[in-house]
Write a structure and sequence with these properties.
alpha/beta; Rossmann-like_a/b/a_fold; DNA Cyclobutane Dipyrimidine Photolyase, subunit A, domain 3; Crypto/Photolyase_FAD-like_sf; DNA repair; Rossmann fold; Serine Threonine Protein Phosphatase 5, Tetratricopeptide repeat; binds flavin-adenine dinucleotide; Deoxyribodipyrimidine photo-lyase
């Protein structure tokens, strides 16, 4: 095995079948061909069995919040995977389910002929339940591979409740983990037996997706899902766009990341959260490229101290960026992996936050909005409305605005429980990066997770951190943002400064 043992586990104890026709990689979360431990392991297995490799990338219909927006993004990723795998000695089988349930027997049919099935381990959304349901019935051995973050999911032995303690632990362990990076291209210089392809009986019943047709205008119309959530006006899915964004960030924006990232007028961040969510780029590559950009070597690291700057001894902006990816992002994965059955439950908040929110649950709410008013950006607060319009139209929301957005929802809804369900609904319905450990990380942060009590105690919020639109407006440059996402811009294309427009 060329992948670290702690990234690998067996979901069942079915025997391997050395006389199978191929090794199957069931690609469900790390939808990419580079820096992907699961693909790397599938290649290792194919080499070991001396069998062809089949990469099966399905997209089902019946998942919560399925819409044209999410589907298009995933299919754009499939197009890039098809291109990256063209000419390689593997079978790439992208499959888009036309109606709910049609694809249910497909995995089992493919698995029956395989030596072993390798898949992605992902600790959030419907995927853990899917694995639980499949592992008992699949007629093959099922292997899970964790390629989610730089820190393996199984490395921490506890659930961290504050960033400082996670960061200190991460700093103690990260240098060893950096020695275990995935291969850039697991298929480079690999010789696998040639496959004659999948049997006609399978392809006739479940034809490979016609990606180009699906990406044409109206191509998704026949799939029964939410067609009102339109594809993003500004963000293209897939590994190619992710690579372009990362290169542009390193060249133009990294140097101003710590100074400008909080200003909504600016695009000083990577904009890569949708690509990270759908696995079109890996955190490993992002971290590696930033460290290379900084000419970093391991001897530059300081002793672990839990501080959010100074550990790497790189430039300030690079320290700030590495902290977002390696502390804030991965702390969310730590939580969802270890508390898989309750990370989205209100009572998973820390005791102090539950107590103060409950104490103030019955406080009068002078201003109240229901889900529909919020969804349509129909509040009296133009700053909040702009943030809501941004996510509805583009599929992402500026980082600073997300915090303000959530705090106002807490203030304007009937109860903190209702605030939670409204945030989850709007974030996951419109955000390309929604339904992610980071989604729950951010939403629960609004309600006090990973935070501490703040004084003075206020109505509704109690001692949960409070934010106002007025102070955000005073502190931040946002005039252009408010224009760009103002009510009059509804019918006009949006051209944010550094985000590329759809190219295909
Ligand atoms: C209420 C609320 C909801 C949120 N919902 C989501 C969500 O659905 N999906 C999502 O990916 N993030 C979410 N976040 C976290 C954060 O806002 C986004 O990760 C960030 O804005 C993504 O922009 P970027 O990719 O340009 O980030 P960059 O600044 O370029 O950072 C690179 C990566 O680091 C990670 N990162 C950056 N900031 C944070 C942060 N504050 N917390 C955790 N990880 C971070 C992300 O993976 C991000 O893509 C939410 C935050 C809040 C407060």
């Amino acid at each position: 095995m060329t992948i670290p043992a702690r990234r690998h586990s067996y979901a069942n104890d079915a025997p391997v079948r050395a006389d199978g026709d191929y090794v199957l990689y069931w690609m469900i979360a790390n939808r990419r061909t580079h820096y992907n431990f699961a693909l790397q392991h599938a290649v290792d297995q194919a080499k070991q069995f001396g069998k062809p490799l089949v990469i099966f990338e399905p997209l089902r219909v019946r998942y919560p919040w399925a819409s044209d927006r999410m589907h298009r993004f995933v299919i754009e990723g499939m197009r890039d995977n098809r291109e990256a795998l063209a000419g390689k000695e593997v079978v790439y089988y992208p499959y888009v389910e036309p109606t709910p349930g049609v694809a249910s027997p497909l995995l089992y049919t493919l698995a029956k002929r395989s030596c072993t099935v390798v898949t992605d381990e992902y600790p959030c959304f419907f995927l853990p339940d899917l694995i639980r349901a499949v592992k008992r019935r699949i007629p093959a051995r099922l292997e899970l591979v964790d390629s989610n973050g730089v820190m393996p999911l199984r490395s921490p032995d506890r659930t961290f409740t504050v960033a400082h303690s996670y960061r200190r632990w991460m700093q103690k362990n990260i240098l060893d983990v950096l020695l275990e990076m995935p291969k850039k291209d697991p298929l480079a210089r690999v010789k696998l037996p040639k496959s004659i392809g999948l049997p006609n009986s399978i392809l006739k019943r479940w034809p490979a997706a016609d990606l180009d047709s699906l990406l044409r205008s109206g191509g998704l119309d026949s799939i029964p899902m939410d067609h009102d959530v339109k594809p993003s006006e500004t963000i293209v899915g897939g590994a190619r766009d992710a690579g372009r964004r990362l290169a542009s960030f390193l060249k133009n924006d990294l140097r101003r990341y710590n100074e400008d990232r909080n200003h909504p007028n600016e695009s000083a961040t990577t904009g890569l959260s949708p690509h990270l969510h759908f696995g079109h780029i890996s955190a490993h590559e992002m971290v590696q490229r930033v460290l290379d950009h900084e000419d970093w070597t391991p001897d530059m690291a300081s002793p672990a101290n839990g501080k959010n700057h100074g550990f790497w001894n790189t430039t300030e902006p690079a320290e700030a960026f590495l902290d977002q990816v390696l502390t804030w992002r991965e702390m969310g994965f730590n939580r969802t992996f270890r508390e898989n059955d309750r990370y989205d439950q209100f009572d998973s908040l820390p005791d102090w936050a539950l107590a103060t929110l409950r104490k103030h649950a019955a406080d009068p709410r002078p201003e109240q909005y229901d889900l529909e008013q919020l969804e349509h950006a129909n509040t009296a607060d133009p700053i909040w409305n702009a943030a809501q319009r941004e996510i509805v139209r583009t599929g992402v929301m500026h980082n600073y605005m997300r915090m303000l957005w959530g705090k106002k929802i807490l203030q304007w809804t009937r109860s903190p429980e209702q605030a939670l369900s409204v945030m989850i609904e709007l974030n996951n319905k419109y955000g390309l990066d929604g339904r992610d450990p980071n989604s729950y990380n951010g939403i629960f942060w609004v309600l006090g997770r990973f935070d501490r009590a703040w004084g003075p105690e206020r109505p509704i919020f109690g001692s949960v951190r409070y934010m106002t639109s007025d102070s955000a407006k005073r502190k931040l440059r946002m005039d252009q943002y408010l224009l760009r996402f103002g009510p009059m811009q509804q019918d006009h294309p949006i051209e944010p400064p550094t985000i590329r427009r759809r190219d295909g």
